[in-house]
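Let's practice the habit of predicting before peeking. Look at the sequence and jot down your guess about where helices and strands might fall. Then scroll down.
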Amino acid sequence: MRLLVITNMYPRDEDPSFGSFVHEQVESLKAAGLAVDVYFIQGYRDRLAYPRAVRELRARRRDYDLFHAHHAYSAAAALVARARPLVMTIHDNPVVTSPLYRRFARAVARRADRFVAVTPAAVRAMATVECVAIPMGTDLELFYPRDKQQCRRELGLDADKKYVLFPANPARASKRHDLAQEAVALARQVEPALELLTFHPAPREQVPLYFGAADVIVVTSDVELGPLTVKEAVASARPVVSRRVGDVDFLDRCGACIAVGDDARDVADGIVEALSLAPADPSAVEPYGMKAVARQLISLYNELVGGPAPEADAK
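Done guessing? Here is the structure:
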């Protein structure tokens, strides 16, 4: 099977985290034996990238058996180019926050051959569109329990601090770095050794060291479809404090995850509580491993183009 992944988010030198989850999914599909190419629409640089993409995709559509578009704009370009059969996955938070964008995303998704919803929040946002629920995978070969002090030595961090990791770009307003700062300042009244830790930008291969070095991971976003970082934290055996955003069902199933309210005091109380929790159980994330998700996607692809079912494999 020849697959073309079409995306407007993909890692680049100046922002290695940009669409890293798409890159990881591509690599997992390649590892499963698929021939996969990537067409990166760099719409963040130039809106004319989309009409150019239509022309180029139209010219290449007979080179592939299947197309998988990530995000509504990418899928719209693929549809105009008549690149079919087309699978569409959506990740961006405006599908929750913007009624206008949500209407657009639903209209595009209805015209795709399959729509993949990555979380229950995505299912709810796209409620009128038939979907297949397949999560974004967690790289269990990258995120796993690590020795905290060894991680700190590798990163040059203080062995005696208690680190609260903010696993997002502080410059993105919706991620609410300001709320994390305020919450840590309040929690420091109880635990003076607390310090807020960030890693953006950092090479993707270094990110798991920050998870391993942290005592608590905190998610203070106003809105999320995931967040994938919660699962990465659990895979790293670290407790999580998160506002009730995105995949609340997973938060409630995982004993090391504390879902809190929206103000700084709620988050601060959660951080203090999390410091006394036992390590998270990484087995809770196994159904979300990259290999497991790749098998689900390959089964979906084979429904569209025909082919054998993928063999079972751990994680």
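How did you do? The first helix runs from residue 20 to 31.
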